[in-house]
Each structure stands twice: as C-alpha cells, then as structure tokens.
Amino acid sequence: MNKPTQQRPRQVTLAAGVIIAGSAFVVLSAWDSVSRMRSLETREAIERFLSEPPGSGLGIGVEAVIEMMHVAALTTAMCAAAATVLGWYALQGQRSARTALAILAVPLFLTGLVAGGFLSSVVAAACAMLWLSPAREWYAGRPLPTAPARDVPGPGPQGGQSPDQPPTLPSYPSPQGGSVLTQAPVASGTERRPDAVRSALVITVVSATIVLLLSLLGGVTLALSAEQVLDEMYRQSPQLREQGVDRDMVRNTSIVMTVVFVLASAGAILCAVAMGARKRWGARGLMVLSVATAAFSVMGAVGSLIALAPALAAVAVIALLRRPEVRAWFDSAPR
C-alpha cells in the first residue's frame, strides 16, 4: 500500500473528518434505533403504517417489518463502524481505505435511510469527495493542481511589463484605417472553477435535495395523519390537551414547517447553482443559509443527535467557501 508523498490537501482532511465524526454519530443513532425497535411506540407506528395504503398492500406483518428494520440498523452500524476506522486510514493516504469507503458508501446510504437518518447520506457524500480533485491526484501520487492566483500588476523588464506576461506584438494598419493590435492570448488560471467550489456545490445539492424530499414526505404524512399524531402527542404529554393543542394546530404547524424547510432547501440549491456559475450573490446567500442551518441544527440536536447531520454539511460548505482560491476566483470574475 503506497502512500502519497505530497502534502495532504485540505479537501481530504475535511472529507475524512466528516467521515470519522459522522460515522460515529451514525453508530450511536443506529444503536438508539435498535434499543427502541420493539417498544410499544414503534409497534403502534408500524401497525398504523400497515393498516393504511401503501403499507396495507405489502402483505407482511409487524414482526417482519421489525426484523427488516433490525437488520437494516445492524448493517448501518457495522458499515459506519468500519467507515470510522477506514476514514482514519484514508486520512493517512491509504488508497485501499479510500476504495473500501467507496464500497461501504452504497449500503451505508441505503440502509441509513432506515436507521441512520440524514447523517448517513452526509457520510456517503464525504466518501465521494475523496474521488474528486485534488484528492484524486493526491492519492494517485500525481502533482496537485495549482490554486489560481490573482494577476498583480507590477514593473517588468520592458516598460512595466510583467516577466510572466507574453510580449506585445507591434501594431499594423488595417485596410479600413486605424491600427490593429496583435497580442498573444493570455491564459488566466482564475478561469478554472476551484475544486472547493465543486465540492461545496455537490454537498449542498445532495443535502438540500434530501432535506427537501424528507420535508415534503413528512409534511404530507403529518397533514394526512394529524389525528393519529395528536393522539400520540396526548399519550406522551397529557398536558398538551389542557394547553389547547388540537388537530388543526398540528396540521397548520406541519404545513408551516414544511414550507419553511422546502423554501430553505430550494434556496440553498438555487444559491449553489448560482455560485457554480460564478455569481457572487450565490456564494453569499449560500454562506448565510449554511450559518443559519448550522445554528438551527445545533439547537435541534438537544432532542435528537440526528439533527446534527445538516450542521456537519453546513460547516463543510462554510469551510470550503472560505478557501483562499475560492475568494480569488470570485474576485477575478468579470463585472
């Protein structure tokens, strides 16, 4: 197992850190799911699902669903535990660890939808980041792509011309009059989209799409099953009945929260696409949304550790957008 000899790119450090920390949280989440698998609340929720379409058409019982969820949770936990160790070896430059993470990302993403929640998707996206440039070149032992630099004017050897700038060719009169200035084309390294921008774009689109779909699914489910949700809330917190919490309040709250999450997710995708098109307002909007998402997720983590998943994705995007080559890329954009 050959290790790269060059300095490790920040993208590898960030991706491996997300894999290690995220996988550890996935293990805890899967363990919590297994501990609550055969609780009365879980059985009642499964019975309600199987008593209505589309669950009623599956033709399976409660025990079969619990067994499938148990297998999915154990698979998620094992994949996440392995990813935690492999993430450390990938951080050290082990190519075989990167390949193993790519293989584990598929079952981790699929089974994690049952037991690991949104966080398993973030870990899978971080595994994909290890195959993007400059991580790809680093693992292959090839020279890393140079970061774009700004063109700083300064005195040159010939009339203030920079030594790196190609010489200007003389002017010649054109047939229509005037003169034509012929100059060799200057290649600008800042025209190339930085890898940090591509990574932030991928993380944002994947994360926001998952949140958008889950928000729509959860909002529709709550709106259609407000009575069952309210009964469960009354059972867990009887004081809610005295506080005047009724079915209409549950339905209206679910609709408002769904609209907020959908608009925020759609806004993040729009800003990410604009950022990829070199629009400064897209990067600024994405930075604001990422900070807000991280703060909201940390506050929501008091009730569930799964709420930290969007925070990890948001922090990764913030770190990528703060890279110097990203700022230089936007500074050199045509006005």
Question: Which word captures the global form?
Answer: globular
Helix/strand-derived category reads mainly alpha
Approximate helicity band: 55-70%
Radius of gyration, in Å, reads 26 Å
**For the largest beta sheet, what order do the strands appear in spatially?**
1-2
As for the number of domains, it is 2
- What order do the SSEs take from the amino end to the carboxyl end, as H and E? HHHHHHEEHHHHHHH
Strand-residue proportion: under 5%
Q: Which ranges are low-confidence, i.e. pLDDT below 50, for 5 or more consecutive residues?
A: 152-164, 167-189
Largest sheet: 2 strands, antiparallel
- What distance separates the N and C termini? 48 Å
Tally of DSSP β-strands: 2
Brief characterization of the structure:
The chain crosses the membrane at residues 12-31, 71-91, 103-132, 200-226, 255-275, 295-321. The protein has 335 residues and is mainly alpha-helical.
Helices and strands, with pairings:
Elements: H1 10-35, H2 40-51, H3 62-91, H4 95-112, H5 118-129, H6 135-140, E1 168-173, E2 179-183, H7 195-224, H8 226-236, H9 239-242, H10 247-276, H11 280-300, H12 308-321, H13 324-331
Antiparallel strand pairs: 1-2
Helix pairs in contact: 1-3, 1-5, 1-12, 3-4, 4-5, 5-7, 5-12, 7-10, 7-12, 8-10, 10-11, 11-12
Commentary on this structure:
- The protein has 335 residues and is mainly alpha-helical.
- The protein has two domains: 10-140; 194-335.
- 66% of the residues lie in helices and 3% in strands.
- The chain contains 13 helices and two strands.
- It has helices spanning 10-35, 40-51, 62-91, 95-112, 118-129, 135-140, 195-224, 226-236, 239-242, 247-276, 280-300, 308-321, 324-331; strands spanning 168-173, 179-183.
- A two-stranded antiparallel ribbon has the order 1-2.
- Helix 7 (195-224) runs antiparallel to helix 12 (308-321) and helix 11 (280-300) packs antiparallel against helix 12.
- It starts with 9 loop residues before the first helix and ends with a helix.
- Residues 152-164 and 167-189 have low confidence and may be disordered.
- The chain crosses the membrane at residues 12-31, 71-91, 103-132, 200-226, 255-275, 295-321.
- Residues 144-191 are annotated as: Disordered.
